[in-house]
Design brief:
- The protein has one domain.
- The protein contains six helices and three strands.
- It has a three-stranded antiparallel β-sheet.
- Helix 1 crosses helix 2, helix 1 packs across helix 5 and helix 3 runs antiparallel to helix 4.
- The N and C termini lie far apart (48 Å).
- The relative contact order is 0.16.
Length: 174
C-alpha cells in the first residue's frame, strides 16, 4: 500500500494549483503555468510529508478518495466533513470538521502565497478575520499589512494559525 504522503500529494498539488490561479487573478497578473518543480512547491510538499507520518494505510486510502472528490467535484467543507464521518475516518463530527477546514485552508493559503510572490505585484498581505475570530487571529490581524515573506508573529506566515482556523489572507499590491 502507498504511504499517505503519496496518496495526498496529487490532491495537495491540485489545491495549490487552484490557489495559484485564484491568487494571480486576485492581483490582476497573468503568471506562468503552475510548476510542481518549483522549489517553493517542493518545500510545501516536504512539509506535508512530515505532517502525515503515522496514519495507517486504510485511513490514508480513504482520505485520498475524499480529498480527490473534493478537488474534482468542488465539494464544500461540509461535504468533506460528512464523507469523513461516513467513511469512519473519525467518529467525531468536530474532528471531521477540523480536518476538512484546516487541511484545505493550509493548502489554499500556501498556493495563494506562491502566486503573490511570483506576480511581482504584491507588497504584502493582510490577515482577514473570520466571523467570531479567536484571540490568536485577532492578534495576527492587528499587525495590519505584513510585508510579503514576513510572518505575522510566532512564525505564522498565513492562515490557518491553528486547527479549524477560518481566516484568510488578501494581497496588498505594490
Amino acid at each position: 500500500m502507498k504511504p499517505l504522503y503519496d496518496i495526498l500529494k496529487p490532491y495537495t498539488i491540485e489545491l495549490l494549483r487552484l490557489a495559484w490561479l485564484d491568487g494571480s487573478s486576485s492581483v490582476g497578473v497573468v503568471l506562468d503555468a503552475f510548476n510542481v518543480a518549483n522549489e517553493s512547491v517542493e518545500l510545501i510538499l516536504d512539509e506535508l510529508a512530515q505532517r502525515v507520518k503515522g496514519i495507517d494505510e486504510t485511513t490514508a486510502e480513504t482520505i485520498q478518495m475524499i480529498i480527490g472528490r473534493q478537488a474534482s467535484e468542488g465539494w464544500t467543507l461540509a461535504q468533506v466533513r460528512d464523507e469523513l464521518l461516513a467513511r469512519a475516518i473519525t467518529e467525531s463530527k468536530t474532528r471531521a470538521d477540523l480536518i476538512a477546514v484546516t487541511e484545505t485552508a493550509d493548502a489554499y493559503s500556501r498556493g495563494s502565497m506562491l502566486a503573490y510572490r511570483a506576480s511581482g505585484q504584491v507588497a504584502g498581505t493582510e490577515w482577514l478575520l473570520a466571523a467570531e475570530p479567536c484571540p490568536i487571529c485577532e492578534r495576527l490581524a492587528a499587525r495590519g499589512v505584513v510585508p510579503l515573506g514576513e510572518d505575522y508573529g510566532d512564525g505564522i506566515m498565513h492562515p490557518p494559525a491553528h486547527p479549524s482556523c477560518r481566516c484568510a489572507i488578501a494581497p496588498v499590491l505594490t
